[in-house]
Each structure stands twice: as C-alpha cells, then as structure tokens.
C-alpha cells in the first residue's frame, strides 16, 4: 500500500470508477507530450529537437492558433467588464474608435444583466434568450420560444445536462456516431450509461447510413439496452462532414418511429464549405408541416456555441440549447438541474447574444465586422483546401473533401511492419504514427482511435486552424519517411 493510500481519504482505487473509465484523447498522451515539447522550446532547451515550434493541430481552439477575436465582440465585452468606461463616451467614440452601436449594445446588455459579475437566471438572462430565439427564427423561418432556450457554459455543459437527464440507469443507451467527438463517450462513461455506437459512412463523405443505425439499435435491444436518444454532430467532428436535408429527415423519422430524443450538436453550423447548413429544428418543423401528427412528439435538443465558427471565443464558455417537444415535467427537472450550477458565465452569455445578434448592414460596426468575419472564413477555407490537396498527394492516405467544421480526418493505410512496431510499443497503430510524427515534426494530431473508427481502419484528425502552411510540409515529409521506414 502506498503512503498516499495510508494518509489520505482518496486514492486511485477508491475514487469514482466511472471517471477512471472515461477517455478523452483530444487532451491525452499526445497533447501532454506536445506541451512538454513546447515548454522545452520556451526554456531555450530544445536545440536537439528536429523542430523549432510545436503546432497544436489536435484541438479546435481558434484563438490559441492565432484567430483574432472579432472587434465588435471584444469592444462590447470591454465595456461590460468595465462599465466606468461608459462615463467617457467621448473618449470611446473619439480616440479609441469605438462606434456608437458598440456603446449602445453594451448599455443594453448591462440593462439586461445588471453586471457581468452578477448571477443571472439559471437558464440565462431573459433578454439574451430573446435574442437567441430571434436568431433561430431568422435562420429557420419558424418561431422559437425563449422560455425553452437554455444558455450554457459552452455546448459541453449543455450536453452534460441533457445526458444527466437522459441517463436514468446503467442500462440506458445513447446512439453515438463513430467516429465522434469524445465528449459523448466520455460523458456516458462518467454517467455509467451505455454508448450505442453507429458507424458513419466514410465512402459517402462520412454521412449517416440509416441501415447501420437501425442495426445498431436492434443489436442494443438484443443486449437489453434501453436506447433513449441519438446524437448527431453536424457539421461533423472529427469527420468534417455536412449532412444533407434528406439525411436529417431520415434521422428525425427514425427518431420519431423509435421514440428517441434527438441531440443535434450544431456547434459548427457556420463552418460550412460545401453546400448549406440545414438545422434539425427547421427540418423537424418542415416534417411536422408536411405530415401532421407523425412528428408531434419528437424531442429535439439542438446545441450551439460561441467556441467555433468565426467567433472562436471558446475561452469565454458560452452556448445554448433549444428544447423542442419535451414533456413539461422533464423541462422542469432540466431547469432544476441547471439551477444547481446557478448560471452559465454571464460574459459568455453576452457573447452568445452578440453571436446571435451581430451588427447588421447600416449599423456603424457592420463593415468591420463583415470584413473580419469573411477574412476568417476565407482563411479557414484556404487552409482546409491546402491541407486536403496535400493529403491527396500522400501515399496511402485518403481524405474526404472538407465540407464543414474545422477538421480533416484522413484514412491512413499502414503497413504490417508499422502495425507490428506499434503493437510492440503497446500503442494503437495510428497513435504510434501520430507519436512518431510529433517527435519528428512538432505537429500534434489526434489518432483516429481517440474518436472511434471501424475495426482495422486507421485515421488521424487535424484541425486546419494553425496559421501558415510550413507545418503541412512537415507532415508530408514525415509521412514519406515513415512509409519508407516501415515498408513491408
Ligand atoms: C462537436 C462538438 N461539440 C461540442 C464541443 C464543445 O464545445 P464548447 O466549447 O461549446 O463546450 C466541441 C468542441 O470541440 C465539439 O467539437
């Protein structure tokens, strides 16, 4: 028995075992090692390393990777944090160059929240929920009820709330796409509930395949699992897919027929490069109109966030989810559950307000807002395309065209020699590849095994947020050398 075990109440064998079971590769071994490399370089001790910078392509953290905050959001936020500045409007609109609409928005938000240092209502400030509802109405062309909009500390906190409500017993199952953002599997593990995996169809641009979903549900049923919900991530993480209207209709119909809650994770809704984003809420309302009765009781929770898109304010922790079709007693329990956390961060709520109610044409801040927004979008698109082109040239690498979100998720064909070497090193083959890549280039990716993947297939996920293209060249060069070293 270790000294720690004897002296303290907690040790690794008596804490909540479900926390230990949970896995979250996005910040796992590779990320930790990359941070060690970064610290070594910062201390000026990395002269023996084969690279001089670490590129964190493992995480969708836009402003960590040089995406600039949108000026309107930050100017308003600065006034919210320090309202005394509003006593010097002449200085603000004079030498500091704040526009009048910035000052007005800050005053309005302060009138709604009183102070960003104060708690708000548990589900978020009413005026801000009103702005979110109007945004949803403009987006979808259907009404949205502010009393069913819950502001949250990022979409993660919304997912956490919803899964707490859904996961009633260790036998409760939730259908989760594979590959998936590991928030879902990790949260289900912590809640001691069952992940019911369904594979996405890589050959069809990582779309949903209804036959596969049906088979997963049937298999879960045979195993005695009580499946209560289906998670959809659209646009996809890690896949970069963007679902068609028909795919969404099929999922909603499937959910209606099998009485499943639909959790639509739509945090990447503005990161769309091919086609158009279709919200689950709009498609559900369309279906309800087309076929009265059939879809009346579909329960949909759709989530959005300030973390992604051109906003990229993930450090501020803001998001929301809209509930549609839930029983009112269940909603009351959701309300109670979020009340236990008091409220989401109020500054994050204010940024949700600005994301959903940005400056519009004719307002003074519009031009700069539009320019900044478009520049970020074009930059992301350019880097996504450059990376995609580079992957297409690489031996044994197959990649879907970037359609949405912030990631590419190519397949890598690894030789038996590489697979054996990984096994000897007690690593998954794609983890082995990514570790070698990190050691050789300083570029940190996430192996496909961290998201789940079809047995026998290997992938890695990279964001295309990192500035410049030098790091893409590093990957290409490494890949060539790796393939040569591990040739069968
Ligand atoms: C699909 C998906 N959902 C949710 C989140 C969490 O976002 P937030 O920062 O809003 O909690 C992420 C973050 O990467 C994500 O990729």
Automatic annotation (TrEMBL):
UniProt cofactor(s): pyridoxal 5'-phosphate
Span of the secretion signal? none
Q: List the Pfam families hit by this protein, alphabetically.
A: Aminotran_1_2
The superkingdom listed in its UniProt entry is Eukaryota
**SUPFAM superfamilies noted in UniProt:** PLP-dependent transferases
Domain named Aminotransferase class I/classII large is located at 102-469
**Keyword annotations for this protein?**
Aminotransferase, Pyridoxal phosphate, Transferase
List, alphabetically, the InterPro entries matched. Answer: ALAT1/2-like (IPR045088), Aminotransferase_I/II_large (IPR004839), PyrdxlP-dep_Trfase (IPR015424), PyrdxlP-dep_Trfase_major (IPR015421), PyrdxlP-dep_Trfase_small (IPR015422)
Q: Please give one Gene Ontology molecular function term for this protein.
A: pyridoxal phosphate binding
Q: How does it assemble?
A: Homodimer.
The record, for PANTHER family, names: ALANINE AMINOTRANSFERASE, ALANINE TRANSAMINASE
- Family under the similarity heading: Belongs to the class-I pyridoxal-phosphate-dependent aminotransferase family. Alanine aminotransferase subfamily.
Its recorded name reads Glutamate pyruvate transaminase
- Organism source for this protein? Tothia fuscella
Upper classification of the organism: Eukaryota, Fungi, Dikarya, Ascomycota, Pezizomycotina
């Amino acid at each position: 028995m270790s000294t720690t075990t004897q002296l303290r109440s907690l040790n690794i064998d008596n804490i909540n075992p479900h926390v230990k079971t949970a896995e979250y590769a996005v910040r796992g071994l590779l990320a930790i090692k990359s941070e060690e490399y970064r610290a070594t370089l910062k201390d000026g001790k990395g002269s023996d390393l084969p690279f001089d910078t670490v590129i964190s392509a493992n995480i969708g953290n836009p402003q960590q990777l040089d995406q600039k905050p949108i000026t309107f959001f930050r100017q308003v936020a600065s006034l919210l944090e320090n309202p005394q500045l509003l006593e010097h409007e002449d200085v603000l609109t004079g030498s500091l160059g704040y526009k009048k609409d910035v000052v007005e928005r800050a005053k309005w938000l302060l009138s709604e929240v009183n102070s960003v240092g104060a708690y708000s209502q548990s589900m978020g400030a009413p005026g801000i929920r009103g702005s979110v509802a109007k945004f949803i109405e403009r987006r979808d062309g259907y009404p949205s009820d502010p009393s069913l909009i819950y502001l949250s500390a990022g979409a993660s906190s919304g997912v956490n709330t919803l899964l707490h409500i859904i996961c009633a017993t260790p036998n409760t199952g939730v259908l989760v796409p594979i590959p998936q953002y590991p928030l879902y599997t990790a949260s289900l593990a912590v809640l001691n509930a069952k992940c019911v995996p369904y594979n996405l169809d890589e050959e069809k641009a990582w779309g949903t395949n209804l036959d596969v979903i049906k088979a997963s549900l049937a298999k879960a049923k045979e195993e005695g699992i009580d499946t209560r919900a289906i998670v959809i991530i659209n646009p996809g993480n890690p896949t970069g897919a963007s679902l068609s209207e028909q795919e969404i209709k099929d999922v909603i119909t499937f959910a209606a027929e099998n009485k499943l809650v639909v959790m639509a994770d739509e945090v990447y809704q503005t990161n769309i490069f091919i086609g158009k984003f279709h919200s689950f809420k709009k498609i559900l309302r369309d279906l309800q109109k087309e076929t009265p009765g059939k879809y009346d009781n579909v329960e949909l929770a759709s989530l959005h966030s300030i973390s992604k898109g051109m906003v990229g304010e993930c450090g501020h922790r803001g998001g929301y989810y809209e509930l549609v079709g839930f029983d009112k007693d269940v909603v009351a329990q959701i309300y109670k559950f979020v009340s236990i956390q008091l409220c989401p961060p109020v500054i994050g709520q204010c940024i949700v307000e600005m994301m959903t109610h940005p400056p519009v044409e004719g307002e003074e801040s519009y031009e700069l807002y539009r320019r900044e927004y478009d520049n970020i979008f074009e930059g992301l698109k350019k880097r996504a395309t450059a990376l995609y082109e580079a992957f297409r040239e690489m031996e044994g690498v197959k990649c879907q065209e970037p359609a949405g979100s912030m990631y590419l998720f190519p397949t890598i064909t690894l030789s038996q020699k590489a697979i054996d070497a990984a096994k000897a090193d007690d690593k998954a083959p794609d983890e082995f590849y990514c570790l070698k890549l990190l050691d050789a280039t300083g570029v940190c990716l996430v192996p496909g095994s961290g998201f789940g993947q079809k047995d026998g297939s290997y992938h890695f996920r990279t964001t295309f947020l990192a500035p410049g293209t030098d790091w893409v060249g590093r990957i290409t060069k490494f890949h060539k050398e790796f393939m040569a070293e591990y040739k069968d």
